[in-house]
Amino acid sequence: MAVGWAGDGAVTQQILDSIDDAVERARQNLPSGPGLTECEECGESIDERRREALKGVRLCLNCQREKEKNQKLRSL
Ligand SMILES: [Zn+2]
Fold this sequence. Notes:
The protein is mainly alpha-helical. The chain has two domains: 1-30; 34-76, no CATH class. It is built from three helices and no strands. 55% of the residues lie in helices and 0% in strands. Zinc ion binds next to helix 3.
């Protein structure tokens, strides 16, 4: 399983690159400004704990999931 990981610089770099991409994408998706109490997509009220955990959150969980799903499909 772990054979080839150590010393296989190309594969390791590839993995690191894809992590960097993911981090960069996540960073760009970070909402700024105050969060919304209601989802800007569907108007559903956003859970208070979700708003506290995600500063500046603008989407409810369902819409966020949909958005992430679409982004993943587009990046393929
Ligand atoms: Zn929503």
